[in-house]
UniProtKB/TrEMBL annotation:
SUPFAM superfamilies: Homeodomain-like. Pfam families: TniQ. Keywords: Plasmid. It comes from the Bacteria. This is TniQ domain-containing protein. The keyword Zinc does not apply. Residues 2-126 form the TniQ domain. InterPro entries: Homeodomain-like_sf (IPR009057), TniQ (IPR009492). Residues 453-495 are annotated as: Disordered. The lineage of its organism: Bacteria, Thermotogati, Deinococcota, Deinococci, Deinococcales.
Length: 495
């Protein structure tokens, strides 16, 4: 609208009144919502398709940054326009980059977003007010109200302070911490991809990621959390709280938002261990972590669950997976596993990487806590290789005393009637040349693989009975979870 008014040597108010049919254009935030008749009028007057005009509003962030673009309500991540006295007073709802204003006269949609505090192109800090007089950046008030008239100006008056006439392109800009510009770049990329890479949780929907980040910024506002972060990280915190008691991240001044975002990026490191450790140390309960969140993304809920409740319930310990492999590498191993058992082990480890809570993972997978804990210990101590072998409790074909046909013959003989241990030993020695000990006799008489708890249970169902041709006993294709557990296949380090 500003560009159009300027190109047509027309007062901005005149143009908006003419297009909209009344003077209400500036009473709502026009970046949020364009009335359909205004949009149609603009399209008719300019020949620009309505869809292209819509794309100039903040609508494109709907569903990725915030759920819906309400015309009036406060929206997380969106800086509200301070509309007092023709947008000149009150809080600045729009930031700018002096470098960008020098190069081309465009106002960027991202400059309305609260997490955008530095320029991705110039890697300098954004400003949101005039360095000379301190009034909020509001280029439209150059024409609305008492600002400088646009008529007769050669350039678009985006770069002048409407209050004091200072050329904003010559504003000094500050350096930006590399971690801040990196963090901002990942957030902007999440908006583009509609998916956010969350440490330890893989890719999460952008909307959920931004929801949790905004919540964590609210947590950082708690004095105890702020004290803890400053003490643990050496990062500076905001100098003072914003005025509004129930304010949100958008209520902080631009410089303070920058400090908070650096703290947030730090807090996400080693997720969720650093975060949980800090919350516990500072005695932050679960409530502020999920306060007003609806819905709570499940991958965040399991983390918040681990902070003590107000009812005094003790939080569950967080376990740490040794950094042998990254989560994608572990997922690849899980998908490429040769056996069901190996796949299941990797599945448990992948879950532990995302939810460092033994009880939670055990409940999900349907095995005991001890099994998960033992698997974790085994993985941490022995490394990824230990997930493939670990076949304690299973027969190894090469170690059997008898050939499969001989075993079948033995079973047929045993089925005919009572055979003493001595007779059995003689029979076996004649065939394999070794006199079997008592354990071997026991296992061959039962027709099971090994002398283990699994073996002792033979008579029910077991994987090994099928191989031995013990007819009539149904054998399952893969061990049940109970088998996996009770055979100790997941635990211990011994073969
Ligand atoms: Zn710039
Ligand atoms: Zn000024």
């Amino acid at each position: 609208m500003m560009r159009l008014a300027h190109a047509n040597v027309e007062r901005l108010t005149y143009l908006t009144t003419w297009v909209g049919g009344d003077r209400s254009f500036w009473t709502h935030d026009p970046d949020r919502r364009l009335r359909p008749d205004v949009r149609a009028g603009l399209s008719a007057a300019t020949g620009v398709p309505e869809g292209a005009i819509d794309a100039l509003t903040l609508k494109r962030f709907e569903g990725t940054l915030f759920p819906a673009l309400a015309p009036r309500a406060t929206i997380r991540w969106l800086m509200p326009l301070g509309k007092g006295s023709g947008y000149r007073h009150g809080r600045a709802g729009l930031a700018f980059c002096p470098g960008c204003l020098s190069e081309d006269q465009h106002l960027r949609q991202e400059w309305r977003l609260s997490f955008v505090t530095c320029c991705p192109r110039h890697v300098t800090a954004l400003l949101d007010s005039c360095p000379s007089c301190g009034s909020a950046y509001a280029p439209l008030s150059n024409d609305l109200g008492r600002g400088r008239a646009w008529l007769g100006e050669r350039e678009l008056p985006f770069a002048w302070c409407p209050e004091c006439g200072h050329d904003l392109r010559r504003s000094p800009t500050g350096e930006v911490a590399p971690e801040l510009s990196r963090f901002q770049a990942t957030l902007l990329a999440a908006l583009e991809d509609d998916a956010m890479e969350w440490p330890g949780a893989g890719e999460v929907p952008a909307l959920e990621g931004f929801d949790v980040l905004h919540q964590l910024l609210a947590v950082l506002r708690l004095p105890e959390a702020q004290r803890g972060v400053v003490a643990a990280s050496d990062l500076t915190g905001p100098a003072r709280m914003p005025g509004r008691r129930n304010g949100s991240f958008e209520d902080w001044a631009l410089a303070d938002r920058r400090l908070l975002l650096v703290q947030l990026a730090w807090l996400l490191g080693e997720w969720p261990h650093r975060f949980l450790g800090l919350m516990r140390l500072q005695g932050v309960t679960r409530r502020p972590l999920v306060y007003n969140m609806s819905p709570i993304p499940p991958w965040y809920d399991v983390v918040a669950e681990q902070v003590s409740q107000r009812n005094g319930k003790r939080p569950r310990p967080v376990v740490t997976l040794a950094p042998h492999l990254s989560l994608p590498a572990m997922q690849a191993r899980r998908d490429a596993a040769d056996t069901e058992l190996e796949r299941r082990r990797w599945d448990i480890l992948c879950r532990l990487a995302q939810t460092p809570d033994v009880v939670e993972v055990a409940r999900h997978v349907g095995v005991s806590d001890q099994t998960v804990r033992a698997l974790l210990r085994r993985y941490n101590d022995l490394g990824p290789g230990a997930m493939v072998r670990a076949n304690r409790g299973r027969a190894e074909p090469g170690r059997r005393l008898l050939q499969p046909e001989q075993e079948a013959e033995l079973q047929a003989w045993l089925a005919q009637g009572r055979v003493s241990n001595a007779e059995l030993a003689d029979w076996m020695e004649a065939r394999c040349g070794r006199r079997p000990n008592a354990t071997s006799l026991w296992t061959y008489r039962r027709g099971c693989g090994v002398h283990s708890r699994e073996g002792r249970r033979v008579g029910g169902s077991s994987g090994s009975t099928k191989r031995l041709g013990n007819g009539g006993i149904p054998a399952t294709a893969c061990p049940t979870l109970e088998d996996v557990d009770s055979a100790g296949m997941l635990d211990g380090g011994q073969v």
